[in-house]
Amino acid sequence: NESGELFGIGPNGDAPFWVKIEVVPSATKTPQATPTLTSTPVVYLTGDVVLNNTNQFDLDSGTLNPEDVTESDFVYQTGSDPAHILMTMNGTQWMAYGDNEPTYGACVQSQLTGNAVSFNEVPTGTYICYRTSDVLPGWLMINTLGENGLSVSFLTWSKP
150 with 142: CB under 8 angstroms? Predict the structure, then answer.
């Protein structure tokens, strides 16, 4: 026992006995991962359009010159100084992003303004991150500028 006295079983407590001891490793508590919910952006609308002078475009519906002017997100104008310009409408905001296709996160986190985009400052091949008049994020890419007008591609994401 704890005092060093021998002990056993039987009427006098002096008969020996045996014990089988099995040592097993203790179970280590495995930490559980805390799930982090991340939004997966869904492409709402994508396409290409050729714009001519004074054409308006709705990035929420992909409509060229919508009947209701309050649905237009921007207008393309030529013939002024600068010679080619895109101007936002109805609360749309944007900013020139660069020549690499932006991600959803990059466009959502961009510091957008309602400033006009001049082709003296922004060359073809440039992506522009935007937030539409319906507050949907996306990008617009300036493809070509020629006699047939301004060709752009666009992608609008839905809100996750």
Answer: yes
